[in-house]
Amino acid sequence: MRSSPGWREHRAFARPYKAESVRDHSRQKQHISRAEGLEPSKPSENRVACILPCAATSMPVLTLPSSESGSIRAKALVFEDSQSRALLARIQQVAPSDATVLLCGETGTGKEIVARQVHELSPRRGRAFVGVNCGALTESLVESELFGHERGAFTGAVQSKAGWFETAHGGTLFLDEIGDIPLATQVKLLRVLQEGEIVRLGARAPEPVDVRLIAATNVDLQDAVRAGRFREDLYYRLNVAPLTIVPLRDRPADILPIAQYFLESYGRRLKLEQIPELGSDAVQALLSHGWPGNIRELENAIHHALLVGCSATVRSDDLRLPSNAPLTRPRLAEGPRATRTTQATDSSLEASFESLFEQGHPNLFEHVVERLVLAAYQHCERNQVHTARLLGISRNVLRARLQQVGELGGSRARDGAGPALRANSPEPIRVGYQRYGLLPLMKASGALERAFAAHGVAVEWREFAGGMQLLDALEHDGLSLGLVGEVPPIFAQAAQLPMVYLAAEAPAPDHEAIVVAPGSEIQSVEELRGKTVLLSRGSNVQYFLILALEAARLTYADIRVVYATPDRAQALFASGQVDAWATWEPFLSDVRREPGARVLRSARGLTANTSYYVGARSFVDQQPHLVTTFLDQLRDVGRWAELEREAATGLLAAALSLPPTAAGPILGGARAPEPFDACHRLSQQNIADTFHRLGLVETKIDVAAACWRPAATAKATASPSGRPARA
Is 389 exposed, middle or buried (0-12, 13-18, 19+ CB in 10 A)? Predict the structure, then answer.
């Protein structure tokens, strides 16, 4: 096993908090192995996290690598708050020993980061660190994954396989969500801890293992023991050196430093020329928010602020934080009054149970559990983290229960047209759209809802202002499908977002242009030298603007670019605060309707301005039949819009509450989508190479790696008339 470089602490000088850039670091980041119950980690994949300097604090920042961007885990920790400093001191006390460590804390508080720090401060630091998410292991395979199996041990075991304990031999094994391990497996885990040896499935002889175990949980294991879900003897074996990571809301001094870290981290990732500062209202919003999602929620808030913000200061509105989030969770009353209340509640419950017993309700246990879960889910305003915490169960167990009763997708999942879905229908397929192309028309027609209902799934539509926000939702918000322009996929691949190309809309070079306001004296692109140009970061028009400038023998450095969201850009353009605006439909039609506004240059002759249907890689790999159904319905809707343009425009106008003249540009030259073929792949590769040449993306991108290669799957039945399928 190759030795991993140790963590070297870098401390910045103590200084008052303000927004300033972290000095660039050049530490070489090796690859971290994160086992999700799939393949054992290889020696070359073993990597430790980094400690980086933070300009906002004198304390170190512990980070996970950026490749973990799809995770719900926290990826950075600071130790500025007194409670965090106490935790750091405790880590330094327990790390040098071989004692089993039990990490307790809510989801997103940074348990894996702490586990890695314990490993790096221990004598095992140069050996393997293997992380396993027990919640991702199915009950039928958990023993095989942990302890390994011999050839022929069960159906499908065609060869022997080492388990995670053997993989971590000599090093540290981190078992996350330990409370999700089945009781039968808990017995075998207890024996491993007692005897220091494992027995593979199908084997007779034990194998000695030398492993330090670090376990983590986001549920109260003592409550699980009392409820009979967790073995008491195993709990005491694990609870040798407990470390409790308090929620972010209870260590407020960490909030601003870690927010500053994410500001600078995502600022570099998004290639911002200047890292925005936190405005006073944003600081107040950060400090007053309850952070139910802890560090991961804070990271998402900062990431969103940088995506949508257009000024040098982050405002509270940019953070997209719920205004009613409580600062702290309500605490149960204490003392005699609480005892009397509990006794009264128990009496009421017993009376309800007696009534159910007398009724002879079938499947009584499942009925009671279902009603309890649903009541808790509604009480917590459909927040899964809060509900799991309230019930004292893991989030995975809660999600399984919600899926069984058809609640996981929310009420919107059942709003679509078509036949009613079964009570145990799976989570809805989330489709993201913008106000252009075929998707708004497909949404208005209800065709996709009816087609997916035949597969027992619902559709949930989500509107986005820009392609980058939509692609970000593929990674963070459970989005499955969507339509974006030709530039956002390039930035998504550079950021290693898990997307694939599915199909392409028809080129629309006249649907993007550089425009100037009424009264402007600028007559050509050549005259933009030294002028201010509005641009939405990551949008289609960014590539078009580059080509238009190059055609006029100008570069990015010759103009002043102001980034703004489309809605904010409209206001800035209308107020005359900028000289020009690189925009697209439907905003372009709004500009053209203004008397005196002019188009300096359209994309015709420069770029095709093609939009692409994309999907989340995990969804596309797991549900290819639904992808095929989605594309078939797109083709039907496109052919119908092409044949009956007036009817399609009227339907779209009614759905969006717009006059037909405004709905027409949204629909554009709608027709059936095209396959993502070699020509489209080459076009995207040219854009990627251009952005890499200009330094807009750091890594060389291979577009072919993001192409969907569907296996032979049964096609969904298309309507022979070319119209969207009707119920």
Answer: buried
Per DSSP, helices labelled H in 395-496 are: 395-404, 439-445, 447-453, 467-476, 488-494
SS3 readout for 361-386: CCCHHHHHHHHHHHHHHHHCCCCHHH
What is the CATH superfamily name and number for domain 427-506+610-706?
A: Periplasmic binding protein-like II (3.40.190.10)
Burial class (CB in 10 A: 0-12, 13-18, 19+), 48: buried
Domain 343-404 classified CATH 1.10.10.60? yes
Tell me the backbone φ, ψ of residue 404, rounded to 5 degrees: -65, -35
Q: Which helix (H) or strand (E) holds 569?
A: helix 566-574
Q: Burial code of 536-572, b = ≥16 C-beta within 10 A, e = fewer? A: bbbbbbbbbbbbbbeebebebeebebbbbbbebbbeb
61 band by pLDDT with thresholds 50, 70 and 90: low
Backbone φ, ψ for residue 244 (5° rounding): -105, 125
Q: What is the pLDDT of residues 118-135, one digit of tens each?
A: 999 999 999 999 999 887
**pLDDT surpasses 90 at 415:** no
Which two structure tokens, joined as six digits, stand for 266? 């995502």
Give alpha helix (H) positions in 276-417: 280-288, 294-308, 316-319, 336-359, 364-379, 384-391, 395-404
pLDDT score of 27 more than 60: no
- pLDDT tens, position by position, 461-503: 888 777 777 877 777 667 899 998 888 898 888 888 888 999 9
CB 442 within 8 A of CB 417: no
Q: Classify domain 249-319 by CATH architecture.
A: Orthogonal Bundle (1.10)
Beta strand residue intervals within 630-717, DSSP E: 674-675
Task: With beta carbons less than 8 A apart as the criterion, state whether 132 and 145 touch.
Answer: yes
Handedness of CA 70, 76, 77, 80 (dihedral sign): negative
Euclidean distance between CA atoms 251 and 254, whole angstroms: 6
Burial class (CB in 10 A: 0-12, 13-18, 19+), 595: exposed
Least confident of 193-202, 217-226, 294-303, 649-658: 649-658
Per the listing, tokens 């209340």 go with 341
Model pLDDT for residues 157-202, shown as the tens digit of each residue = 778 889 999 999 999 999 999 988 888 889 889 989 988 999 998 8
Angle, in degrees to the nearest 10, between helices 660-667 and 645-656: 110
Q: pLDDT exceeding 70 applies to what percent of the chain?
A: 76
